C-alpha cells in the first residue's frame, strides 16, 4: 500500500506499509532512486500525510484501533511531535498556503465537522454540525475497553452505557460489517438511537478488523466463521464477567458481515440472546461466493475461499449459518434491500424460508428501493425504528 504522495523538492514523501505490518512515512529520492523509511509511529499505522513545503513541515494522521492521533514532522530531520486533535477520527486533511492545517474529523457524539489549526497551534471549529433536537448531554460517548480473547489475542471494543435515566438493563451486541473494517469512535446515529431508548451497546473489534495492522486484518481471510466467532463469544463472556451486562438481557444486531455473524452466533450460541436482528447478511457462504459481482470473484477466493474447490467447500459449509438452523431458536428480524449487489436478496430469502419451514418466529422486511445499506433516509429511519421496537417487544416482562 502506498498513499498520500507529496513532492518535496526532488523527493517524494508518502505513507506505505511496504515490508511492515503497519504503515510508516517513507521518502523516495528522484535523483538517486533511493527509498528510505524515515518515521514509524510507536503504535499504529501512518495514514494521511500533508506537507507545507515552505515551512519544511508535514502532518501525519496515525490510526490505531478506534482512534486517530496527529503528528507534526520536521522534514529536515524527520523528527515527529504529537499534537492535539479536536476530534477522535480524522477523515480528511488539507494544508493551506499559509501553513494552516484543515481537517474534517468526528467524535462519537457529533457528526463530521471542519477544524483549522492555525500556525500558532490553536484550533478553531469552522462548522457546528450537531444532532438536531437532542442535547449533547443526552448522547453517550464510548468507553474504550481491551481484553484477551480465547487464545490470548488482545481485542479492543467500544462500550456505550445508556444514561441511567433511560437505561432498561439490556445490551445490544454489535458485530461490525466488513469484515475487514472496524468500529471506531465515529458518530453512529443508530447507536445513539439505541442508547436513547435505554439499550447499552457493545461493539467488539474481532480479528480481521482494520486499523490494527496487516497481520491482524488478514486473520479473517479464509476464516470467516471460526476465529472471529470465538472472539465474539470471548468478548461477550468478558463483558458479563465484568458485571457490565446481564447474561439474560442480551440482544444481537449486525449488518453485512455483521449480519452473517449474527446468523452464525444465533445458530451456534443462541443461549446468549433474547432475539437477533440480521441486516442484509449472507447465510450460505457457497451461494454467497457465487452470487457476488464478477469483478469481486478473484478477491473472494483469497478472502473467503473457492466454492468449487472440495477442501474450501467443506470449510464454507462448516462456516455457513444455514448449516446451524436447528440452533436458531430465538425470535429473529431479517432486513434486506431488494437491489443489493453484494449480498443479494436470495441470501435473506433462503434463511427466512428455511426458518419458517421449521416453524421459527421470523419477521422479514424487504426494502424494494435499497441496495447494500441505507441510501434513503426514510428507509433508514423506518428500519431503525422497527429494530428497536422489535427489541422492545422481546424484552422480558
- Spans of at least 5 consecutive residues with low confidence: none
What's the number of extended β-strand segments?
Answer: 20
Distance N to C terminus:
53 Å
Q: Helical element count?
A: 9
Write down the overall geometry: globular
How would you explain this protein's 3D organization?
The protein has 397 residues and is α+β, with helices and mostly antiparallel strands. The protein is 24% helix and 31% strand. The protein is built from nine helices and 20 strands. The strands form four sheets. It has an eight-stranded mixed beta sheet with strand order 13-14-16-15-17-18-19-20, with helices on both faces. Helix 8 (345-357) links the parallel strand 19 (332-337) and strand 20 (362-367). The mean pLDDT is 94.
Brief overview:
With 397 residues, this protein is α+β, with helices and mostly antiparallel strands. 24% of the residues lie in helices and 31% in strands.
Amino acid at each position: 500500500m502506498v498513499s498520500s504522495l507529496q513532492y518535496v523538492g526532488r523527493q517524494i514523501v508518502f505513507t506505505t506499509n511496504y515490508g511492515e505490518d503497519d504503515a510508516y512515512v517513507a521518502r523516495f529520492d528522484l535523483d538517486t532512486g533511493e527509498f528510505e523509511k524515515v518515521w514509524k509511529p510507536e503504535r499504529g499505522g501512518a495514514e494521511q500525510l500533508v506537507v507545507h513545503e515552505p515551512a519544511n513541515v508535514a502532518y501525519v494522521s496515525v490510526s490505531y484501533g478506534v482512534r486517530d492521533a496527529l503528528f507534526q514532522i520536521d522534514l529536515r530531520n524527520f523528527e515527529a511531535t504529537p499534537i492535539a486533535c479536536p476530534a477522535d477520527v480524522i477523515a480528511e486533511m488539507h494544508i493551506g498556503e499559509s501553513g494552516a492545517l484543515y481537517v474534517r474529523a468526528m467524535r462519537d457524539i457529533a457528526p463530521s465537522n471542519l477544524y483549522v489549526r492555525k500556525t500558532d497551534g490553536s484550533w478553531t471549529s469552522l462548522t457546528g454540525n450537531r444532532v438536531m433536537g437532542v442535547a449533547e448531554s443526552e448522547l453517550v460517548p464510548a468507553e474504550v475497553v481491551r481484553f484477551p480473547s480465547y487464545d490470548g489475542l488482545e481485542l479492543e471494543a467500544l462500550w456505550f452505557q445508556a444514561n441511567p435515566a433511560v437505561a432498561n438493563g439490556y445490551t445490544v451486541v454489535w458485530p461490525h460489517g466488513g469484515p475487514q473494517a472496524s468500529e471506531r469512535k465515529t458518530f453512529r446515529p443508530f447507536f445513539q438511537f439505541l442508547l436513547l431508548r435505554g439499550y447499552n451497546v457493545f461493539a467488539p473489534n474481532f480479528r480481521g478488523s482494520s486499523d490494527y495492522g496487516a497481520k491482524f486484518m488478514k486473520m479473517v481471510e479464509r476464516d470467516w466463521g471460526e476465529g472471529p466467532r470465538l472472539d465474539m463469544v470471548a468478548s461477550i463472556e468478558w463483558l458479563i464477567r465484568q458485571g457490565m451486562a446481564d447474561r439474560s438481557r442480551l440482544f444481537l444486531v449486525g449488518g453485512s458481515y455483521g449480519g452473517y455473524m449474527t446468523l452464525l452466533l444465533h445458530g451456534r450460541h443462541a443461549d446468549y440472546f433474547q432475539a437477533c436482528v440480521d441486516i442484509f447478511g449472507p447465510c450460505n457462504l457457497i451461494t454467497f461466493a457465487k452470487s457476488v459481482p464478477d469483478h469481486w470473484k478473484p478477491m473472494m477466493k483469497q478472502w473467503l475461499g473457492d466454492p468449487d474447490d472440495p477442501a474450501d467447500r467443506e470449510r464454507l459449509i462448516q462456516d455457513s449459518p444455514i448449516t446451524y438452523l436447528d440452533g436458531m431458536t430465538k425470535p429473529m428480524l431479517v432486513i434486506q434491500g431488494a437491489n443489493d449487489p453484494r449480498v443479494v436478496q436470495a441470501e435473506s430469502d433462503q434463511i427466512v424460508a428455511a426458518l419458517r419451514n421449521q416453524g421459527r418466529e421470523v419477521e422479514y422486511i424487504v426494502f424494494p428501493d435499497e441496495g447494500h445499506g441505507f441510501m434513503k433516509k426514510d428507509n433508514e429511519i423506518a428500519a431503525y425504528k422497527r429494530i428497536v421496537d422489535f427489541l422492545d417487544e422481546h424484552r422480558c416482562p
